[in-house]
Design a protein that fits this description.
The complex is a heterodimer of chains A (307) and B (280). With 307 residues, chain A is an alpha/beta fold. Chain A is 37% helix and 30% strand. In chain A, the strands form 3 sheets. Chain A has a 6-stranded mixed sheet with strand order 6-7-8-3-9-10, with helices on both faces. A 4-stranded antiparallel sheet of chain A has the order 2-1-4-5, with helices on one face. Classes of the chains: A alpha/beta (307), B mainly alpha (280).
Chain lengths: 307, 280
């Protein structure tokens, strides 16, 4: 098992009568891109703010880089870069001045050249002297990433980094995160509502709901890499449903409509299913593999409601 | 890290247009007073001295740079707190409102250091204002009206101070005025720590100054015990430097009370800011 970068145990925080976080537990290992998932109001932002000591937890323990956050805040934050919700900057200052301000208190000695290099890296070359007031949301997000990476942190915490970005911006952020992990060995804790994105980049994840950890583990294990949710667009769906139930094993019917079937099955069985249905005279118009994390996420939340 | 943060605060203050409002306001206000005194100052002085003319004979130019500077200080020292609070009251709450405080506090600088850097930057800004007021009142006043003996009318009567005896008194007077304004700056930054909007602490600072000034001037017995401890009571202590003999004990008492206020307000601010959850 590799080195533990973040260890959170029994984290709890309330604001007056509202218990925002009740019992959150998770561990992030070195080199992880760790997905931090939960519906709105689950306690994600409060937990992340606790990790950065913006909010003081009522109970529980947070260890980062093996050190207690309560007693080693400065040393930990010197090795951490973050964006919480949205990056806010001094609008009356230029992009360069903003980065210079944050780098001066980051504990690292960052040169002018390095700041300019970082602006270039995030695609803001040539805009160094422009005031942030004139920046679009996407540009501010890029500047936020630059601010996060400027002091070469070992741990990067990104809370909804793709909010408000266009599709190309989302792809850029995804590629950037993967590059940071693969080329520089950074550890990334990522919170996002874009589950498809998360599925593409996270290797481990935790799902929290109502301030509690529901499940934590390897994404591939939790989602069972070989099991798919397949959506079939087919004529005579009702008839096909019965035929599948009577003739094919290892296929679980999730739902059906007049011309659509949703099935849980092994990846290896998809071709066989297609062949068999066509042979039986059914017309198949489309076969689509649905996003599994989305289903898993909803399944976990539903199970939590039932409990 | 502290001095890096102080440097950051200077950059922010100098980049904000509102920081120059104070300097502009002082320039305009002093300019208006200088113009009024240049045009009609002699008749004003004649009106004040008329009651003494039967017993005293005045020689030389009474309306000189020293008197003009004294009049300007007397008139403006009440209004400068607003100009100070306009910038310092925004130093923490403005960052909370814009979300930048969240960004700053995810950096390794301690909250105490960050707050102290804001107090230091606020003190330097206040110092700049008082220096500018000094330049406009004393230097420009002397350039326009020349130098001379200073005639001061206070509660004990008329005090005439020799021309060569005035400069050090202005230096002391401005130093005490700076400490008084520094207390205002400290108060507004302290209030700024308790708020998440920019305007609240500025308005509250002025409201406290007005309230304390009213308590200080109302001749009501119930306020007698608290009046000596209100910082507003000591905001006019700069005038003590223009009394003869110099009331050293009173000046020292004022300095102690102003400094005590500053220590108390900074301590309250540091305590609260360190405990504060950043939810903005």
């Amino acid at each position: 098992m590799s080195e533990k970068i973040i260890e959170v145990q029994h984290l709890s925080k309330h604001f007056g009568a509202f218990h925002a976080v009740k019992d959150v537990n998770f561990t992030v290992y070195k080199g992880d891109v760790f997905g931090f998932l939960g519906p709105n109001g689950a306690g994600k932002s409060t937990s992340i703010r606790c990790l950065l000591s913006l909010i003081q937890a009522d109970r529980g323990e947070i260890k980062i880089f093996g050190q207690s956050l309560a007693t080693n805040r400065s040393q930990i934050l010197a090795r951490t870069g973050s964006i919480i919700e949205k990056p806010d900057f001094y609008k009356y200052l230029s992009a360069y001045q903003n980065l210079a301000i944050f780098s001066r208190i980051s504990g690292a000695n960052v040169s002018r050249k390095e700041i300019e290099g970082m602006l270039d890296f995030v695609g803001l070359a040539g805009r160094e002297q422009d005031k942030v007031a004139g920046f679009s949301h996407g540009m501010k997000q890029r500047l936020g990433i630059a601010q996060t990476l400027l002091h070469q942190p070992d741990l990067i915490i990104l809370d909804e980094p793709t909010t408000g970005l266009d599709p190309q911006g989302i792809i850029d952020i995804r590629n950037l995160i993967l590059r940071l992990r693969d080329e520089q060995g950074k550890t990334v804790l990522l919170s996002s509502h874009l589950l498809a994105e998360m599925e593409l980049i996270a290797n481990r994840m935790v799902i929290i709901n109502k301030g509690k950890t529901l499940v934590e583990g390897e994404v591939a294990q939790l989602l069972n890499a070989e099991e798919l949710v397949v959506q079939l667009e087919i004529d005579k769906a009702e008839e096909a449903k019965h035929w599948i139930a009577n003739h094919l094993s290892n296929i679980e019917l999730i739902s059906s409509t007049e011309n659509q079937l949703e099935l849980a099955m092994d990846k290896s069985g998809v071709a066989e299913l297609n062949k068999s249905l066509v042979a039986q005279g059914f017309n198949i118009y489309a076969i689509e593999s649905k996003r599994k994390l989305e289903d898993y996420f909803i399944k976990m939340l539903k199970a939590d409601v039932v409990e | 890290m502290l001095w890096n943060s102080v440097y950051n605060e200077f950059i922010k203050i100098t980049a904000k247009p509102r920081s120059y409002l104070g300097l502009l306001a002082i320039t305009v206000l002093v300019g208006v007073i200088l113009f009024a005194l240049k045009v009609d100052g002699k008749s004003m002085i004649a009106f004040v001295t008329s009651s003494f003319e039967q017993t005293l004979s005045f020689q030389g130019e009474l309306l000189n740079g020293n008197l003009v500077a004294f009049i300007i200080l007397q008139m403006l020292i009440i209004h400068i707190p607003l100009l100070v609070a306009l910038v310092t009251g925004d130093l923490v709450s403005g960052e909370a409102a814009s979300g930048t405080i969240r960004m700053l506090l995810t950096k390794p600088i301690s909250r105490t250091q960050l707050l102290l850097s804001k107090f230091i930057a606020g003190a330097v800004y206040t110092f700049c204002l008082i220096i500018w007021l000094g330049i406009m009142a004393v230097i420009v006043g002397k350039l326009l009206f020349g130098s001379g003996d200073l005639m001061v009318l206070n509660s004990d009567g008329l005090v005439i101070l020799q021309e060569q005896d005035v400069n050090w008194r202005y230096l002391g007077g401005f130093a005490v005025a700076f400490l008084a304004l520094l207390t205002v700056s400290t108060l507004s930054i302290c209030l700024s720590c308790f708020s998440n909007n920019s305007i609240g602490p500025i308005v509250l600072t002025m409201a406290i100054i007005i309230l304390f000034t009213i308590i200080g001037t109302l001749d009501v017995k119930i306020f007698d015990s608290i009046r000596p401890f209100l910082f507003t009571t000591h905001m006019a202590s700069w005038r003590s430097f223009f009394e003869e003999p110099l009331p050293k004990a009173e000046i020292i008492k004022s300095l102690i009370i102003l400094l005590a206020h500053q220590v108390l307000l900074i301590s309250m601010a540091v305590y609260h800011f360190n405990k504060k959850d950043i939810t903005s």
